[in-house]
Design goal:
TLC-dom, 183 residues, TLCD, 69% helix, transmembrane helix, elongated, 6 helices, membrane, transmembrane
């Protein structure tokens, strides 16, 4: 697969990309039906790009290797989802510190650093590698496929840059100084 990300095909690779496409379609419809557009437009746009690219790979049985590489990005989603669960369950700050000087829980901070680290590795490095691969293999691809891949990857990279900034601002660059008399 690593030698030919365009033509490589196996039943397991095709199945994984097909099931992933189904997940993104289901999640798209769930968000579209149950959340306001203002609240979910970024993820709807992301899912539209992924469904388009993965759908092309599944239907044509081409670019499955490239689609599989892109799934490495989703490994970071584990920590993004844990972060969301911690926020929803009110476990961001240590009890009793919310008003005077909010101090994140050990669990939240551990997840936060794992989230940022896996973000850089599995999102940053993977998307960077994918951009380099697209540029280096552009002559082996029809222009329409190259345009879809370039536009989709560019959009995903921009969205991930914004997401990384938001995470950094919310979890690292917040004012968590301890006031006098607190330990």
């Amino acid at each position: 697969m690593l030698e030919d990300l365009i033509s490589f095909h196996s039943v397991s690779s095709h199945s994984l990309v097909a099931v992933s496409t189904g997940y993104f379609i289901h999640d798209f419809w769930d968000m579209a039906l149950n959340q306001s557009f203002k609240q979910s437009w970024e993820l709807l746009l992301h899912h539209t790009v992924v469904i388009s690219c993965f759908g092309l790979a599944v239907i044509n049985r081409l670019y499955l290797g490239f689609a599989l590489v892109s799934l490495l990005v989703e490994l970071n989603s584990v920590f993004l989802h844990i972060r969301q669960l911690l926020l929803l369950s009110g476990q961001r700050n240590r009890p009793g510190t919310e008003v005077t000087a909010p101090r994140p829980t050990v669990t939240y901070m551990t997840n936060s650093w794992l989230n940022l680290g896996t973000f850089l590795v599995f999102r940053g490095c993977t998307l960077g590698w994918m951009a380099r691969w697209l540029a280096g293999n552009s002559e082996n691809m029809p222009r329409s496929i190259l345009a879809l891949g370039t536009a989709g990857l560019s959009l995903i990279c921009i969205m991930n840059t914004v997401l990384f900034y938001r995470l950094l601002r919310a979890d690292v660059l917040t004012n968590t100084k301890i006031t006098k008399g607190q330990h």
